[in-house]
Amino acid sequence: MKTPVEERFIEFYEKWMCQLEENLQRLLKVSREIPHRTEREALVSTVTTHLKEYYNAKWAAAHEDVLAFFSPVWLSPLENAYLWVTGWKPSTAFRLIESLRQTGVPGESLAEMSEEQMKKVEELRVRIRLEEEKVEREMERQQVALADRRMVELARVASRVSNGGLVGEENGLVEVALKELLSGLERVMKAADCARLKTLKGILEVLSPLQCVDFLAATLMFHVNLRKWGIKRAGPHEM
Length: 239
Description:
One of its GO terms (molecular function) is sequence-specific DNA binding. It contains 8 helices and no strands.
């Protein structure tokens, strides 16, 4: 049984992914052609706006049901296996740049990055790694908090409530404690998303318009193909 938030987000995500695939085709076309610089910049702006729309919708939905994003039913098991705090891990973007520089796929522009660009990307990578570690520490703190003395006592109270022993104020205490836990998870999720957005913004600021096109094309290609592989492996009946 899916929650109302899950039902709404499934519908949103399917439409959002369709637009993502359309954007990917536009990026690949522009990468192969020689359009004016302003055309590339306009397309990069369109794609990044679309990516940000996902986070705006995600944050609004998570405020109602944050747990839905820690085990998203709209993703395949393969996609879920690669999640890092409800999304892609920021450091993978830097690994992607290295791969693009070596392979030249989908375009060769990343292979022509200057030393100054590489220096800036490395500085960004170090900053983002620190943010990842901060998110991971906070996630660990949230998980460990489940076993603190207050939560253990509340679990005992909740057990008595479910057995008809206590009601009213005690049940209210349990609800307050759970609300605090969910709020903590929502904060961690947003911190992880902010690290993802900072990574994307920082990389695009370093790259030229053509390099931005190739980087975004590779990024979208990865997510689109991972979804296709995941759905194919899981089968439509499991999605």
